[in-house]
Amino acid sequence: MLVPYARKNHNVSNFNPFHDFDELERAFFSDNALGEFKADIQEDGDNFVLEADLPGFKKEDIHVDVADDRLTVSAERHSNFEDKDKKGNYLRCERSYGSYARSFDISGIDAAGIKAAYADGVLRVTLPKQKEVPASSRRLEIE
Question: What is 34-128's CATH topology?
């Protein structure tokens, strides 16, 4: 279920001297070459809207899959480095290549109505809320 999120306030009273070490450890031991992409989820009337930053990806290299109340966004960036390096064209190569994958719990979402669009490096996924079915009640006969 999508839940509200409050951005952390990074002020002096919340200072943690070990924060950078924690981040370094997460990055170093991550099994994902590119790390996690950043995403925002907001409520918009009858929908939730997920916006994920995926700059530099081609639309055909991004996949959005829905299964078992989970929405998974995956993307892969291919490298031409090996081919160009044989010609000696690169002096430095710092950009990362590989794949991203991230999943979100979408219980309470009408999975059949999910829509996705990609423009200007941002993936926008519209997640319609399930319509609430009024609880029905009935009196049972006692045998």
Answer: Immunoglobulin-like (2.60.40)
